[in-house]
Amino acid sequence: MSETILLSLFLMMLGIAITYVIMGRIHKKQFIYLESEANAKAKAIEYEAEHLLDEAKVKIQKDEMLLEKKFQDKELALVKQKTELSLELKSLEKKEKNILKSKANILKQERVLDALEKEKKEAIAQSISTLEKSAGMTKEEAKRYLLAELKNESQLEFALVSRKYEKEAQEEAQKKANYILSQAVTRYAGEFAGERLMNSITLPSDEHKGRIIGKEGRNIKSLEKLLGVDIIIEETPGVILVSNFNLYRRAIATKTIELLVEDGRIHPGRIEEVHAKVKDEFEQKILEEGEAIVVELGLYPMDTELMRLIGRLRYRASYGQNALAHTLEVAKLAAIMAVEMGGDEKLALRAGLLHDIGKALTQDHGGNHVDLGVDVCKRHNEHPTVINAIYAHHGHEEPDGVESAAVCAADVLSASRPGARSEVLESFIKRVKEIEEIALSKAGVVDAYAINAGREVRVFVDAGKIDDASVYLLSKEIAKEIENKVQYPGDIKINVIREKREIQYAR
Q1: Measured in whole angstroms, how far is the alpha carbon of residue 246 from the centre of its chain?
Q2: Half-sphere exposure (CA, 13 Å, Cβ side) for 448?
Q3: Tell me: the pLDDT tens digits for 461-487?
Q4: Nearest CA among 444, 433, 437, 435 for reference residue 473
Q5: Distances in Å between the alpha carbon of 294 and those of 303, 311, 373?
Q6: Given the DSSP bridges, would you call strands 239-243 and 198-202 parallel, antiparallel or unpaired?
Q7: Helix pair angle (139-186, 2-135), 10° resolution
Q8: Cα 69 from Cα 78, distance rounded (Å)
Q9: Is the confidence at residue 504, as pLDDT, over 80?
Q10: How far apart are CA 274 and CA 302, in angstroms?
Q11: pLDDT at 388 exceeding the cut of 90
Q12: SS3 for 491?
């Protein structure tokens, strides 16, 4: 029994020993693994630490370079600022020296002036003393003598001035009497002039008169300035009048106002917009009318410019006779006469149609309508007979053929038939055109319009070339030239307008 127990104890001790040995080996292997793992982590940490250290060194180097660059930039800025301050200081020192020098010069000049003033007073005193001795009078006696002489001279001048004003008053009275007489006489032609110099516009209501006038007259001023006409607001309900001697200008003005009234929006900006549109439409309408006339007469083809000028003749008049009506009359009469005399009907028709073509250019270009007509026809290679007819109908050349002779005869027939022309209207138109031309000939004048039956001329000047002080002188100059060159009844008002306008666009 005891042996069994001892054997069990031995075996148990042996198992414990074996277990201890096995466990020791297991723990040793675990230790070695943990040790190797720890070494690996340590190396990783060491590598990461070295990497971070390298990055930190690079960053420090970059920061050092940036700091060094900033320091250098600041140093350069300070050097530049120091240089500028030094230059400015030198400039101030130079200015100070100049100021001191100028001050010294001024003080010197003041001393010289004081000395001169003293010398002047001494010279005056000496002169007065010499005069008193020479004249045998004291200063007070001489003063009383001079005043008496001046009084006598003033009375003489007063008499001369009074005589001058009395004469001027008599002349003015005579002029006024002549004006009243002339107005009384010319009233007989009022209806005739009204028919040819005015267009009436019917308004939907009298409220539109207020819109046309605008606030403080702004709209009507813009209309008259842009359109170059006189707008007359009469007491007649629903009617306004557009007056001007230029048919073309008056027709454009009438159409512009009609469109503005129809639209209802009447303000300076809209007025300019509608006026530009109407002008473009009129130019197109004129060309279309010229083309229609040429086609109707069987004279196509013809140059576009010539057809446009033919259409424009509708808005020209000669001694009260419409230029286009006269031209068509001459063309048809010349064609009939040329056929009867054995000439070329079409050539006579063409020459008659173009004989007064220069009249479409005279209002814009001035000059003689014969020379203007010849120039434009030569430019477009018209037949020599057409050129000869233009020259011959005013006696510049002899007719070189049947067709030219027919045009000359037709022109006389059309112009001299009873009621065809009026000298009164033509002389009036010539006068107002001459007034406009005088104003337009002045430097700095942009536009000039004779309105109010030639009793007023509105002159628009370039604000960049004419200042406010020069406006008065310009108006006087224009008035003086009109007085010297133009024969007219009554007075003519010269209204010079200077307006500065700046336009910018917000984009």
Answers
A1: 23
A2: 27
A3: 888 888 877 888 888 889 888 888 887
A4: 444
A5: 10, 10, 17
A6: antiparallel
A7: 110
A8: 14
A9: no
A10: 32
A11: yes
A12: coil
